[in-house]
Amino acid sequence: MILPLIEDSTVALKVLAFNASPHMEKSNTTLILNPFLDGLKEEGASIETFYISQLKINPCLGDLNCWTRISGKCIQKDDVEALLPKIQQTNILVFAFPLYVDGMPGPG
Predict the structure, then answer these.
(1) Which residues of 77-92 are buried (b: 16+ CB within 10 A; e: fewer)?
(2) By CB count within 10 A, which of 6, 13, 22, 108 is most buried?
(3) Residue 82: which of 56, 108, 63, 47 has the closest Cα?
(4) Distant-in-sequence, close-in-space partners of 95: CB < 8 Å, separation ≥ 6
(5) What is the DSSP string of 21-44?
(6) pTM, whole model, 2 decimals?
(7) Residue 44: φ, ψ to 5°
(8) With 0-12 CB in 10 A as exposed, 13-18 as middle and 19+ as buried, what is 10?
(9) What is the pLDDT of residues 62-95, one digit of tens each?
């Protein structure tokens, strides 16, 4: 049984899953991730999954414009703009990625 993270049990949990495998649907990562998400669905959660390789996410420029010029807003125009509101409204974030050697895979 999954314990709800929100007080009102009538509100479904919102889950945002990120699959970082470059093989997407045909990956071992997906073979592990899908049963986990299926269990959450059985408990009433709403699931939205994104494949990282299909998203345009630019690396941070490190120029601190988001802090100094535009409070909290990145100057880059990429898919993060659309993802941020979803991340703020979700209850659970799931990050699934293959572990090839020492850590998460980088941009390909």
Answers:
(1) eeeeeeeeeeeeebee
(2) 13
(3) 56
(4) 17, 18, 20
(5) -TTGGGSHHHHHHHHHHHHHHHTT
(6) 0.79
(7) 100, 5
(8) exposed
(9) 888 887 887 778 888 999 999 999 999 999 999 9
What's the one-letter identity of residue 27? S
The residue extents of the domains of the chain are: 14-96
Given a contact cutoff of 8 angstroms between Cβ atoms, the answer to whether 80 and 5 are in contact is no
Strand, helix or coil for residue 10: coil
Read off the pLDDT of residues 28-62 as tens digits, 9 standing for 90 and up.
999 999 999 999 999 999 999 999 999 999 988 88
* Total length of the chain: 108
